[in-house]
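Narrative progress, year one. The postdoctoral researcher (J.K.) led the effort to move from monomer predictions toward full complexes, under supervision of the PI. The following entry was the first complex the group processed end to end, covering 472 residues in total.
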Amino acid sequence: MHVFTDPKNFDAYLSGFLWILKLTGASAVFALLLGVLLAGMRVSPVPVLRGFGAAWVNIFRNTPLTLVIFFCYFGLYSTLGLSLSQELDLNRYWLGVIGLSVYTAAFVCEAVRSGINTVPTGQAEAARAIGLSFAQTLRIVVLPQAARSVIAPFGSVLIALCKNATIVGTIGLMESSNVMKDLINSNGDAVIPIFLVIAGTFAALLIPTGYLFGWLANRLAVKR
Amino acid sequence: MATGEPLIVLDSVNKWYGPLHVLDDVSLSVDRGEVVVVIGPSGSGKSTLCRTINRLEPINSGTITFDGQELPAEGRALAKLRSEVGMVFQSFNLFAHKTILENVTLGPIKVRGEKPAAARERGLALLDRVGIANQADKFPAQLSGGQQQRVAIARALAMQPKAMLFDEPTSALDPEMVGEVLDVMTSLAREGMTMVVVTHEMGFARHAANRVIFMADGKLVEDAAPTDFFANPRSERARDFLSKILTH
């Protein structure tokens, strides 16, 4: 464990996971908003919106995340000149958040849509029958019930998002897996311990997350 | 409200589910204050007919007019029209995540913009009327089927509708709960509510209906006063149907 007792390495390790948490946090918020919006589009009566939602899901769910992140960096930034911060790391961070958000939104959308499908059609019919608009029906009657059945799948999406955040390392952000690569390069004698510490940190973050979401899903279930 | 003028008018309505002709050139007029009971064998299109009146089922051709206005396409105008037509479903469809009282006040507050306190007061009065005021803070799953259906009627009445549609309101109920729901419907009919009722309850048809409509294979086969219909059905199809349900 001599690698992590060195304060320089330990700082790198901490700041690596701090980036992961920041990437996960910001992307989770954006992906959630975007994903719910896309799910609304996919169940809407407007064909153009349905088509847009379906296209989004098909494109981003079936493209490797590495490509999406690369496109954000080399396409949006290097080629099209979209710069989100003067600071190099922050620019990479925000480009990473964009990539992770648009990608994860596709999975959130499908989780929400399957949640909507667990709400009996009679609920939406009753809502329309008393004169609620499509948006009100979705917001007041369908989504609150769908949300409760979507909690458990959301846990899985969030866990995947946290692990996927390591891919932002490929565009140069010093997140955990990039830190790990550097540590291994300079400490060839401690490859296995370094792996175990990084993997163990992910597990320590994510196993409780899984249990938390399982517990919430049970607690908030709608009785029928 | 004047009685005797048509409130709901269906003119040559056709609807297909793929190759299946579920509504075959159906024309029907329901006057204000009239109670029309629709009966017929399963698959005859009677539920579909009921659901076309507030456009939960769109039609392929023909016209449906409610209170002098043709049913608008999906959108704000249709939502407004639906708010004026109460609907009661076979499977109750109470909002599962809302309390009984919230089920009844949701429409008045969100659609009509009523003040929550006023909507609450009227909601409680309606629940009292259907005999479940003491359950106001429970959730739908905690009530019996008969109680849920009475809440569903109160929810529809809370919008002060011009007409009420009942789509087999007692078909999903245990036999001992049918009476309590029919009692509420009978009292509504007496008060002059315009009602279209799809049902298998022949007793209700006899004593509460002004007219009985008999449907078979998507066609409107007979349209008669209940006494005439039950005593002298004109069509072979209706005679056959009645002989099957009335001999037991």
